[in-house]
Amino acid sequence: MVETADSKRRRAERSSAGSGQQEGTGGLWDSVKKAAFVIGSGILFLAAFGNSLTWHLQKFWGASGDFWQNLWTKVYLAFEGHDAALFFLGTMLVPTSAFWVLNGLLLLVDTSGKPSFITRYRIQEDKNSPVDPTKLRQAVKTVLFNQVFISAPMVVGIYFLMSWRGDACGPELPTFHWALMELAVFSILEEILFYYTHRLFHHPSLYKHFHKQHHEWTAPIGVVSIYAHPLEHVISNMLPVVIGPVVLGSHITTTSMWYCVALVSTTISHCGYHLPFLPSPEFHDFHHLRFNQCYGVFGILDRLHSTDSKFRQTKQYERHTLLTSLTPLTQSIPDTPKKGQ
Questions:
Q1: Which of 70, 81, 255, 297 has its CA 20 to 30 A from that of 42?
Q2: 3-state secondary structure of 230
């Protein structure tokens, strides 16, 4: 009997659920200890070699520092006495604008199938050509709901938390080294929290009620990066990103930059195109294809937990690199021909 695409998807989902039940507490704790060791070693490495790694960037920042400080002073004075409005502008409107500008461009390609210069880089070549308009409308409605009714109220709450901690909209910009250190900490916290919360939502008791909605897209597009159940959006999408600035009491400029980076990064991970000179989306695209592999952002915890073992045996793994030419990786590293072809 021929297995349909839907039956394959259901089988993969059952496999994902089963893998969560089979994992023992001892094995999980061992992997957590390994993760702490690797991440701790990375922090020590960055501390030891920070000066040499950041010397050129610091030189640039020092030369242009007055420009950025003067620019921020003008913005600060324009909003003087209205810190809440300034915080909402920097941490909600600016990142949301970055998200929709990028996704607006991607949606033009997804819906029209043009230009061919972009579509030739599609990872799953036989999918979304063009995207299903009914499915897309549902995704966009959910994304807008999450942004307006989930993200926006959370940002208001974050403002009060950060105001209690200190002056998030202070007149002085953070130093270059401090901002760089903060971004590194944010990235580490995101990797840890996203991996474990994402994997939690793959538990059989949660998956079918919450996370299955996101996995309706086995071939994702950029806008579905925040197409999720509201509970998942809070715990797995928002929390890993917002926790860092709250813990460190970060300045609004660093927080705004981080939110923009996080939204652009997750859009690229879901966009479905492996474009030249942009981060590889192969890792997360494979997660949507197979369900029970590649749960994290950077893949560090996936390697430690062996949740990328199947991915590392595929052509997608061979393509999981920065593309530095104009030749699509599906051409330079083609799929292995199936038997009989």
A1: 255
A2: helix
